[in-house]
């Protein structure tokens, strides 16, 4: 029977599209689902302000009545304008191990891109740098983070068969938190604070964090602006991110650094891992998902996820990253955290990799963005 591709047009279709990976990975102990409500909002035009500069088409693949795959095709006009590209993106590309399925889904995304006059396709990469990106190519036997894609190893053979090639990789580390802080690191942080006239700020109430988070994420936009695939974050996108983060984060693991004038020049966010909670609840908030998430965020948790460290480019070489890491490390040791997993870091970003030198670490995962020219008809595989 031929594979049928149908566009997602209704809320019922969208829910089926969001939930497809639950069946695909139901027996995989390393897979962690995203929060279902978040995924529904991400692909709803009235909920995601990134639709101000993005368009999407979502597709499901069927073998008879059985759902066998999904893909989102995405045109990011802000990306194309910023980088002088003419590209279409793909994201949430999941499928059973059948080349006919991956081919049919990918062809549908390419077809839409060509109809719109685009000559290149890249992915998996989403709306902005705040979205999930990169297909797992190493670390299939490791429990996934709550903020990254997981995929079966067979995906890589499918990418090759489709004609996609590596565009860039991100790597991830698992850091072991030391039992005590080295005096040398404490002295260095104190010296850097004094020399630069900086102030390391931690937070004790959410109202203050909420107010300063808007400024901090404007800094994030500047700090990451030259990185692969990034687009300018609009005020509405920043507001949406802040509204999502601030109510849930554990204040122990947020740090900003301010300069002499009181401007935020560095911002670091770590979050107690909710991966196990999401896994146990299949990504659903109810009936027990919200309780499990809050318990993971507020209670004892020996593993943290490093969302990011962002520093104003003018201050990156003045020790601000070291100040942030020292400030957060003090709290990790105090709370007896054992491990911290970094988010994906571009393999070319040597500055951020150097931040983890003081730690015992393992580079345990790698993920990839693929690309190919679609300006001409692809040869039959």
Q: What is the helix/strand order?
A: EHHEEHEHEEHEHEHHEEHHEHEEHE
Q: At the third CATH level, what is the topology name of the largest domain? A: Aminopeptidase
Radius of gyration: 21 Å
- Total number of helices: 12
Protein described:
With 381 residues, the chain is α+β, with helices and mostly antiparallel strands. The chain folds into two domains: 4-170 and 368-373, Aminopeptidase (3-Layer(aba) Sandwich); 176-366, Aminopeptidase, CATH 3.40.630. The protein is built from twelve helices and 14 strands. It has helices at 11-24, 36-42, 77-83, 99-115, 155-162, 183-196, 206-223, 235-245, 275-280, 289-298, 320-334, 350-354; strands spanning 4-7, 54-63, 66-76, 87-95, 120-123, 135-138, 165-176, 199-202, 254-258, 264-272, 303-311, 339-342, 345-346, 360-373. Helix 6 crosses helix 11 and helix 7 (206-223) crosses helix 8. The model is unreliable at 376-381 (pLDDT under 50).
Keywords:
disordered C terminus; 381 residues; 2 domains; Aminopeptidase; 12 helices; alpha+beta
Characterize this entry briefly.
The chain has 381 residues and is an alpha+beta fold. The chain has helices at 11-24, 36-42, 77-83, 99-115, 155-162, 183-196, 206-223, 235-245, 275-280, 289-298, 320-334, 350-354, and strands at 4-7, 54-63, 66-76, 87-95, 120-123, 135-138, 165-176, 199-202, 254-258, 264-272, 303-311, 339-342, 345-346, 360-373.
């Amino acid at each position: 029977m031929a594979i049928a591709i149908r566009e997602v047009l209704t809320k019922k279709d969208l829910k089926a599209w969001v939930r497809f990976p639950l069946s695909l990975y139901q027996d995989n102990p390393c897979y962690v689902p995203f929060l279902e409500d978040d995924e529904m909002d991400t692909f709803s035009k009235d909920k995601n302000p990134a639709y101000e500069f993005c368009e999407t088409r979502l597709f499901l693949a069927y073998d008879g009545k059985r759902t066998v795959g999904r893909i989102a095709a995405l045109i990011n006009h802000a990306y194309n304008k910023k980088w002088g590209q003419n590209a279409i993106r793909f994201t949430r590309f999941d499928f059973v191990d059948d080349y006919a399925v991956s081919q049919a889904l990918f062809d549908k995304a390419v077809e839409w891109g060509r109809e719109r006059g685009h000559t290149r396709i890249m992915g998996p990469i989403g709306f902005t740098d705040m979205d999930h990106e990169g297909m797992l190519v190493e670390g299939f036997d490791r429990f996934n983070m709550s903020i990254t894609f997981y995929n079966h190893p067979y995906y890589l053979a499918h990418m090759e068969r489709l004609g996609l090639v590596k565009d860039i990789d991100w790597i991830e580390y698992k850091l072991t938190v030391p039992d005590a802080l080295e005096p040398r690191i404490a002295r260095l942080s104190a010296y850097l604070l004094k020399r630069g006239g900086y102030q390391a700020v931690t937070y004790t109430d959410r109202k203050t964090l909420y107010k300063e988070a808007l400024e901090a994420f404007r800094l994030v936009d500047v700090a990451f602006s030259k990185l692969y695939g990034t687009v300018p974050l609009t005020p509405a996108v920043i507001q949406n991110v802040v509204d999502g983060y601030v109510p849930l984060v554990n204040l122990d693991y947020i740090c900003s650094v301010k300069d002499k004038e009181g401007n935020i020049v560095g911002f670091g966010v770590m979050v107690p891992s909710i991966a196990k909670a999401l896994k146990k609840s299949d990504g659903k908030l109810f009936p027990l998902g919200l309780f499990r998430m809050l318990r993971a965020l507020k209670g004892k948790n020996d593993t943290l996820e490093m969302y990011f460290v962002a520093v104003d480019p003018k201050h990156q070489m003045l020790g601000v990253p070291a100040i942030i890491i020292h400030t957060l490390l003090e709290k990790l040791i105090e709370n007896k955290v054992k491990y911290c997993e970094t988010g994906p870091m571009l393999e070319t970003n040597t500055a951020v990799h150097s931040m983890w030198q003081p730690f015992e670490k393992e580079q345990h995962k790698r993920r990839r963005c693929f690309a190919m020219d679609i300006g001409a008809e692809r040869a039959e595989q």
